[in-house]
Each structure stands twice: as C-alpha cells, then as structure tokens.
Design a protein that fits this description.
There is one protein chain. The chain has helices at about 1-5, 60-80, 105-110, 115-120, 165-180, 225-245, 250, and strands at about 30-35, 45-55, 90-95, 120-125, 130-140, 145-155, 155-160, 205-210. The protein has one domain (about 30-135, about 145-250): Aminopeptidase (3-Layer(aba) Sandwich). β2 (about 45-55), α2 and β3 form a beta-alpha-beta unit. The protein is of the alpha/beta class. α2 crosses α6 (about 225-245) and α5 packs antiparallel against α6. The protein is built from seven helices and eight strands. The strands form two sheets. The chain has a six-stranded mixed beta sheet. The structure holds zinc ion. Zinc ion binds near residues 53, 126, 127 and 192.
Amino acid sequence: MNQAAMAGNLSRLQMQLQLRSERHTGLTARNGLAIIPGKHPSHGDEVIVINAHVDAWFDGAGDNGDGLAVQVALARYFARPENQPQRTLVFVASAGHHTPGLHGPRQLVRMNPELADNTVVALNIEHVAQRNFTPARSQFPDGYREYVADSAEAPIVAGVSNAAPFINDLFGQGVQRYGVNFVSDVSTMASGEGGGFTPLGIAVVTTMQAPPLYHTSGEVLEAISTPGLERMARFLAWFITRLDQADAQQLNP
Ligand SMILES: [Zn+2]
C-alpha cells in the first residue's frame, strides 16, 4: 500500500476479502461439579457456589484458563481436612459460555432447584490474571505505537451484585493483604457467567478483567501473569473462608 501511495495511485487500489465460516447446531455441553461438604451442623446445608467457565475462543488462556486454574487450586485447598468449610462448597466448571443456548450456570440453576434454594453466595471467577499492557513512551510519526507487557496482572473489577458492605470491604482488605490489582470503585456488575445466578436473588460476586487481548488469538499462555495467578488464588482462599464464617445477614443484608 505504501508503494501505491508513493506512486500517487492509491485511489485505484482495490482489495477483496473473503470469510468462510461454518454453522454448527444441536451442540451439547456438560457442567463439571465438585462438592466439598460443610461441617457445621446447621450451616452445612447452605451452599457457596464457586464458578469458572471452561470453554473459550482461540487458546483462551485469559478467558478463561486463568480463572479455571485458580478455581482448581481453590478446590485442592478446601479439600484438605484442615481447611474444611462450615458451609458446603460447590465448584462448578461451567460449559457453553460462548455458545448461545448452552449457558452452564443457567442450566445448573434450572436443573437443581434444591441447590438453588440453598445457595447463599455465588462467586464467578472469570478473566483474572492476564498481564497488563501499557502504551510505550515511543510514538512514531506514522502513528505506530508500541505497547509494553507488564509482568503483573491487568486491573480486575470486583462486582458484588447486592452491594453488601461486608463483601465489598473484603475486597478493600484483599488489596492491602495480597496486593491484588482490584479497581478502587465498588461495582454491582454480574456479567458473564454471573448472570446465570442473578435470578436467585442472592449475592453474586464476580471478579473480571477486560484487557486488550480479550477474545483474540493473542490470548496465549505468555499473556498470563504468574504472580497475578498466585495473588488471586491466595486472596480467594482467604475471601471464601471469610464468606464461609460470615452470618447469612452479612452476605445478604
Ligand atoms: Zn469469560
């Protein structure tokens, strides 16, 4: 194109693009479930759901390989006898997030009315450790701009659907204790998989990034921050423990 421009005949430049696509119908998908029973005699029936979706576009390292990795680490942590919770933890590896009609959490709620009745909080772990990209200081005359990939994670929005002060306060403490890169403002966002749990009328907690490589072929393993993964896993182990120890009133005031 540069040569055409220099020759002064850019107006006569023609281009043809083709996109070939296929449509698949009648697809099925399954949610994966893992249950850690609560040990408290009266709180044991109450459930905390910990959700991460498993399907992706392209390599999906950030949407949602990182969230799934953190979820698996948490399941391992709470499966140890010394970490057994008071309430029951239901880990949901949800399927069909990117496919219309196959929304995993929505089907889970529909097919398990007892589980839905007993759930007091649903936590959705979605896009949590992609590296941060910042514009470089260099800018070239033709507008080309370089970016720098930090080793640490991009900002994470923490949504608490019912704005429960107790839960929002835990995110503030989490920044101080673990250095997780949560944005400062409180939010009631319950996007992505969280939407499947909102009909329950309980606190839906969502941790979510929307970094530049989101939903692109650049979502590869190298785009994930290892320290970010570790910070998030440590924070959520503490966060879920605090939710587990809280009164029902504190979770859903
Ligand atoms: Zn996602």
